[in-house]
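User: Show me a protein chain along with its predicted structure.
Assistant: Here is one chain, sequence first, then structure tokens.
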Amino acid sequence: MKFYIASGLPNAERVSLAANVLKQSGYEHLYDWTAHRDVRSCGQKRMREVSLNETRAAADCDLLLVLLPGGAGTHTELGIALAGDKKRILLWSETGEEFDDSGKTCVFYFHPAVERIQCSFEYLIKLLAEII
């Protein structure tokens, strides 16, 4: 099974922790953007390369884990995963405020293919360890 984790740059440490748990459970990490972090000031060639790697990972994974909050790239990756073949999509929020219906949420968080998870990050790690 192959996985990819989408999230915003401020969550890079949590992405790495979650990735390690999934790798220990036997999943293959398709692309680790935390290794290079922010590439927006690295020139167009590098940004193109990273965008292609992230697109491929979101399209080819069996499991997409989205750690909120996320930015535009995170939501693009969620869309790519939703548009592709059936895969498991886990959408995590620590507070759940992203899931309320106040008009500030993203409608794709409620797509039938998305499993919303609200819990502490520590509990998410326990859930991920039991995922296989």
